[in-house]
């Protein structure tokens, strides 16, 4: 009997997974809590646990914030099938194709713009969000070198930020809550500014104090800094932390004052998630470099983009290297680009704005009862994002299991139980997600109190 046959006979899919796969942010373990996905449609997942019990749950995660149009969306499905009938991939070195050109044109028509700022004009297609950040950081250093400032090779980042898991991206993530300590000596020593004040409590004095600290840091290190990098308005994996739009304007002003590029990471926030098409639009700010991903293909395929101004692109192209020094094998994958075009086509209708407002309102009302629960430190929403912040770290397996029992799929982290639902979620579905989250937190809190 061949090896594949032997594996199939060894046990359930979950058992086989535990024997051979390694999951994100998890140990290689034979006891890892897992649920098999048997199907997905709209905002619902059909799950089965290791004992064979089945559950239908509402996906409050949009599969890590990407499936904004829901599963098995007919427009995205059709786009993928059409492209498969032509070709699914071709190298992007020396070749081009319709889906990539159309995607670049669509992106440039929707990114932030202002009459007094250089326009975002060039799109570099990357494999994933982390890679787009890597490309953005490389580009900033190459720009400074081409401008005659080769010593500018460090970055000014915000504490609480998260920009990806590859090495350069990790180097601009929060140095305490990020993964720096696991890789001593391998990550670049960048400069970190204090996290901006929280939007819910920030005063004009708080913002001015933060501005002064940021200005001092930028001035002190300006001769070695290439760029400022930040997630505008909402820091995602760093804690679902919302801060005032005024702080994004301050980032722009300080970058300009010291000859730094401004990189805005909208991988999590782009395409409507915070209530504006891009989070930078809350502040009316145009970055020099913009990174997008996640929802770009509606969660169907991995694709991201680094978008920069024509000024930056021209400077680097005229520099000693004569090129941006990066080129992924699957850059501009036609299948991913075709689906991304369909996804952006849905976004372009403008329906996302009312969808996000509906989801946000349902999350705000549905999560409000969590404020009365023991162990809850805060409840907050922004756009189509809802957060229950606990006083202590989340018992992830317990909360996940309790949420599934209440008909909701969540993936908590740190001390947060949060939702980023698909935009197509109805008010009733979103309210059910929120109720399931509250019930899960209440159940685990009750069990913890009872065990004392």
UniProtKB/TrEMBL annotation:
The similarity annotation says: Belongs to the class-III pyridoxal-phosphate-dependent aminotransferase family. BioA subfamily.
List the Gene3D superfamilies: Aspartate Aminotransferase, domain 1 (3.90.1150.10), Type I PLP-dependent aspartate aminotransferase-like (Major domain) (3.40.640.10)
Q: What is this protein called?
A: Adenosylmethionine-8-amino-7-oxononanoate aminotransferase
Q: Which GO terms describe its biological process?
A: biotin biosynthetic process
Subcellular localization(s) per the UniProt record? Cytoplasm
According to its UniProt entry, the function of this protein is described as: Catalyzes the transfer of the alpha-amino group from S-adenosyl-L-methionine (SAM) to 7-keto-8-aminopelargonic acid (KAPA) to form 7,8-diaminopelargonic acid (DAPA). It is the only aminotransferase known to utilize SAM as an amino donor.
Residue positions annotated to bind substrate are 64, 162, 294, 327, 411
Q: Which PROSITE patterns match?
A: AA_TRANSFER_CLASS_3 (PS00600)
Uppermost EC category? transferase
Query: Is Cell inner membrane one of the keywords?
Result: no
């Amino acid at each position: 009997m061949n090896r594949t046959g032997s594996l199939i006979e060894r046990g359930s899919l979950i058992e086989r997974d535990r024997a051979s796969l390694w999951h994100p942010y998890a140990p290689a373990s034979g006891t890892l809590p897992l649920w098999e996905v048997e199907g997905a449609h709209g905002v619902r997942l059909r799950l089965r646990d290791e004992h064979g019990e089945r559950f239908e749950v509402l996906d409050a995660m949009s599969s890590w914030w990407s499936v904004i149009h829901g599963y098995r969306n007919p427009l995205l499905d059709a786009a993928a099938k059409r492209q498969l009938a032509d070709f699914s991939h071709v190298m992007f070195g020396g070749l081009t194709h319709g889906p990539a050109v159309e995607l670049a044109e669509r992106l440039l028509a929707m990114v932030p713009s202002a009459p007094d700022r250089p326009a975002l004009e060039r799109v570099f297609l990357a494999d994933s969000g982390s890679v787009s950040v890597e490309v953005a950081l490389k580009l900033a250093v190459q720009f400074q070198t081409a401008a005659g400032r080769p010593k500018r090779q460090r970055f000014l980042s915000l504490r609480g930020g998260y920009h990806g898991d590859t090495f350069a991206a990790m180097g601009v993530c929060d140095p305490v809550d990020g993964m720096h300590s696991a890789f001593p000596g391998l990550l670049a020593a960048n400069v970190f500014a204090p996290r901006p004040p929280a939007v819910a409590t920030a005063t004009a004095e708080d913002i001015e104090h933060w501005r002064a600290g940021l200005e001092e840091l930028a001035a002190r290190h300006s001769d070695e800094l290439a760029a400022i990098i930040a997630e505008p308005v909402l820091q995602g994996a760093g804690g679902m932390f919302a801060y005032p739009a005024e702080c994004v304007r301050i980032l722009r002003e300080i970058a300009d004052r010291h000859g730094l590029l401004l990189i805005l990471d909208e991988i999590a926030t782009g395409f409507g998630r915070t209530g504006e098409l891009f989070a930078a639009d809350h502040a009316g700010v145009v970055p020099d470099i913009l990174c997008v991903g996640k929802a770009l293909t509606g969660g169907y395929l991995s694709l991201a983009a680094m978008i920069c101004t024509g000024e930056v692109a021209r400077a680097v192209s005229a520099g000693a290297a004569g090129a941006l020094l990066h080129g992924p094998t699957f850059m501009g994958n036609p299948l991913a680009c075709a689906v991304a075009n369909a996804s952006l086509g849905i976004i372009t209708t403008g329906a996302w704005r009312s969808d996000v407002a509906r989801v946000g309102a349902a999350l705000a009302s549905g999560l409000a009862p969590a404020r009365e629960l023991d162990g809850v430190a805060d409840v907050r929403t922004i756009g189509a994002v809802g957060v229950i912040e606990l006083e202590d770290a989340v018992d992830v397996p317990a909360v996940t299991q309790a949420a599934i029992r209440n008909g909701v799929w969540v993936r908590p982290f740190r001390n947060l139980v949060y939702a980023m639902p698909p935009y197509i979620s109805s008010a009733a579905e979103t309210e059910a997600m929120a109720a399931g989250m509250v019930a899960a937190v209440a159940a685990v809190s009750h069990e913890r109190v009872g065990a004392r």
